[in-house]
C-alpha cells in the first residue's frame, strides 16, 4: 500500500467521522423529505411530458392513417377515371403514410410503456413520501427523547465528579455532625440536671432526718431515776459524749455520699 493511499484513507475516515458527528437527525430528516418532494415534482413533470409526447405521437399516427385512407380513395377515383398512372402515384403516397403510421404505432406503444412505468414510479414515490412524513414525526420524537436522555445522563455523570456537588455533600455531612453534637450536648445537660435534682432530693432527706434528731435530742428530759437507799449518785440518761460521737458518725456518712 502506497503512502498516498494511506493518507487518502485517513483523510476520508476523518471526513466521514466529522460528517457523522455533524449530522442532526431532525435536520437530516427534514432535508431528506424536502429532497423527496423535489424528486416528486420532477417525476410529475416527467410523467406530464411523457403523456404529452404520447398524445402527440398518437395524433401524428392518426393523421398518417387518415392520409393513407385519403390517398386510397384518390387512387380508386383515378383508376375509375382511367388515370392509371395517377392511381399508381396515389397508391405510392398511401404506402408512405401507412409506413409512417406503423412506425408511429410502434413509437406510441413504447411511449405508452414509458408513461405506465413513470406513473407507477410516481405512485410509489407518493406512497414513500406519505410514509416518510408519518415516520418523520415519530423519528423526530424518538431523536428528541434520546437527546434528552443523553443530556440527562451526561448531567448525572458530571454531578458525580463535580466539585460543587462534592462541596454540597461535605456541607451536608458537616450539618449532620453539628446536629449530632447538639443532640449529645442536650442529652448530657439533661443528665447533669437530673443528677443535681437527685442529689438535692437525697440531701433534703438527710437534712430532715438530722433536724428531727436534733429536735428529739433538744427536747429529751434529763431527770434521774429513783435509786434504792445506799445507791450511787444518779447518772444522766443520755450521755453527751455518745450523742456527739453518733452525730459525727452521721456527718462522716453524709460526707461519704
From TrEMBL:
User: Cross-referenced Pfam families, in alphabetical order?
Assistant: PspA_IM30 (PF04012)
Q: Where is the composition biased (Low complexity)?
A: 223-234
**InterPro entries from the xrefs?**
PspA_VIPP1
Looking at the record's lineage, which domain of life comes first? Bacteria
| Alphabetical UniProt keywords | Coiled coil
Positions the record marks as coiled coil are 26-158
**Region annotation Disordered: residue ranges?**
223-242
What's the family?
Belongs to the PspA/Vipp/IM30 family.
PANTHER family noted in UniProt = MEMBRANE-ASSOCIATED PROTEIN VIPP1, CHLOROPLASTIC, PHAGE SHOCK PROTEIN A
Protein name from the UniProt record? Membrane-associated 30 kD protein-like
Record the organism.
Synechococcus elongatus (strain ATCC 33912 / PCC 7942 / FACHB-805) (Anacystis nidulans R2)
Amino acid at each position: 500500500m502506497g503512502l498516498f493511499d494511506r493518507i487518502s484513507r485517513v483523510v476520508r475516515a476523518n471526513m466521514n467521522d466529522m460528517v457523522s458527528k455533524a449530522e442532526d437527525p431532525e435536520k437530516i430528516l427534514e432535508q431528506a423529505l424536502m429532497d423527496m418532494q423535489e424528486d416528486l415534482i420532477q417525476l410529475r413533470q416527467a410523467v406530464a411530458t411523457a403523456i404529452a409526447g404520447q398524445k402527440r405521437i398518437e395524433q401524428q399516427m392518426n393523421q398518417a392513417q387518415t392520409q393513407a385512407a385519403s390517398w386510397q380513395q384518390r387512387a380508386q377515383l383515378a383508376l375509375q377515371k382511367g388515370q392509371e398512372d395517377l392511381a399508381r402515384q396515389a397508391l405510392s403516397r398511401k404506402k408512405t403514410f401507412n409506413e409512417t403510421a406503423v412506425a408511429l404505432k410502434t413509437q406510441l406503444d413504447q411511449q405508452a410503456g414509458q408513461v405506465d412505468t413513470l406513473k407507477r414510479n410516481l405512485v410509489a414515490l407518493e406512497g414513500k413520501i406519505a410514509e416518510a412524513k408519518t415516520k418523520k414525526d415519530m423519528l423526530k420524537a424518538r431523536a428528541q427523547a434520546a437527546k434528552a436522555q443523553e443530556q440527562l445522563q451526561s448531567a448525572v455523570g458530571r454531578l458525580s465528579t463535580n466539585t460543587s456537588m462534592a462541596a454540597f455533600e461535605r456541607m451536608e455531612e458537616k450539618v449532620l455532625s453539628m446536629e449530632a453534637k447538639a443532640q449529645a450536648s442536650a442529652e448530657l445537660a439533661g443528665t447533669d440536671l437530673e443528677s443535681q435534682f437527685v442529689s438535692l432530693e437525697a440531701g433534703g432527706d438527710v437534712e430532715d432526718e438530722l433536724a428531727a434528731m436534733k429536735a428529739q435530742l433538744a427536747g429529751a428530759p434529763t431527770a434521774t431515776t429513783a435509786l434504792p437507799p445506799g445507791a450511787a449518785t444518779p447518772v444522766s440518761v443520755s450521755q453527751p459524749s455518745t450523742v456527739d460521737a453518733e452525730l459525727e458518725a452521721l456527718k462522716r456518712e453524709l460526707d461519704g455520699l
